[in-house]
Design brief:
With 331 residues, the protein is an all-alpha fold. It has 14 helices and no strands. Helix 1 packs antiparallel against helix 9 and helix 3 crosses helix 4.
Length: 331
């Protein structure tokens, strides 16, 4: 006999499900995935395929042999999405064995250690990415130049726009910023310098994915808009204060900002529940990203900013609670 769960009214029914939302985000990532194939070719295909397959395999193994969970969770799309996002945060010439280590950390430490989907405190893909960045800094900061479609490990590398911005600040030489591609090229991703990670190469493709998720109501506007506005305002203030800081448009379209704001920070599990809390969360990510980019040790600060604010999500949820269903607001 199956159990019947009886609860008091009111009752609400929706069409949302884990599978629908996970695969919806995967569909939204397709434009950026196609753009990565266009710019990186074989390298992008190898890195993304390895990351996805490794994440799915590790989740299946951990569920079956360590947690003894009879439920098959690899088909809900969460492991596929984690693998795809992890691949998007890696350079296109990363060796396969390092990708597999990143997938193991993302699934085994970032997700399954906390109990699996819905229980993890930190974004699993970013846990894997930051672990690799700290453990293998040379390989994780070697950025292939876009357009080498058939190259993989022997791809020619170059400095990214974020590296140029960092050097301009460090050297107090604003002329370094003249080497930056213009805003149009950064939006489209057509740059002759180091292009960065696989998923951040084309900001336009990421914005198309964001528009799709907003249209399908997979996410709300609060987190991405609050992050982008915060970064734009702070970058403008820095640029006005000193010419060694890049203009807001270059900052917005460079590095993993768009990828993080649209797809990483909006993770259901690790972000606040209500709109006001999400705005506070997004502002915090924006501030930390600008601080780390301008004055921290790493050129990119998005990943660390999201993980730091993930830790504050329970506290934010404590002070910014969503209105209860059916609650009457007193005037």
């Amino acid at each position: 006999m199956g159990k019947f769960i009886v609860s008091l009214s009111p009752h609400a029914h929706g069409t949302d499900s884990v599978e629908r939302n996970m695969y919806g985000v995967i569909v939204a990532l397709v434009p950026a995935l196609l753009a990565s194939f266009y710019f990186f070719g074989l390298g992008s295909a190898i890195v993304c395929a390895t990351s996805v397959l490794a994440c799915v395999l590790f989740e299946w193994v951990i569920n079956k042999y360590l947690l003894k969970n009879p439920r098959n969770t690899i088909l809900d799309g969460s492991a596929i999405l984690t693998g795809l996002l992890l691949g998007f945060n890696l350079p296109s010439n990363l060796p396969i064995w390092i990708i597999i280590i990143g997938a193991l950390v993302a699934i085994g430490v970032g997700k399954m250690t906390f109990g699996g989907l819905g229980s993890n405190l930190f974004n699993p893909a970013l846990v894997g990415r930051c672990f690799l960045l700290v453990s293998f800094p040379a390989q994780m900061t070697s950025w292939p130049i876009a357009g080498q479609l058939s190259s993989y490990l022997d791809a020619e590398t170059g400095a990214t726009p974020l590296a140029l911005m960092k050097w301009a600040i460090k050297s107090h030489d604003a002329s370094v910023l003249q080497q930056l591609p213009d805003g149009w090229h950064l939006l489209l991703g057509s740059t002759n310098d180091g292009a960065g990670t696989i998923g951040e190469v084309c900001a336009l493709a990421l914005l198309i994915g964001l528009a799709y998720m907003l249209w399908k109501k997979i996410i709300t506007w609060h987190i991405p808009v609050s992050i982008l506005l915060t970064v734009a305002v702070l970058s403008l203030l820095c640029h006005v204060a000193s010419p060694v800081y890049a203009d807001p448009l270059s900052v917005l379209f460079s590095g993993g900002l768009m990828l993080g704001a649209c797809f990483m920070a909006t993770d259901y599990v690790t972000s606040p529940m209500c709109g006001r809390g999400q705005i506070v969360y997004g502002i915090g990510i924006g501030v930390l990203t600008v601080v780390i980019r301008n004055w921290g040790a790493y050129p990119e600060g998005m990943s660390f900013a999201i993980l730091i604010m993930n830790a504050f999500t329970p506290l934010i949820n404590t002070y910014f609670k969503p209105k209860r269903f059916g609650e009457v607001v007193k005037k």
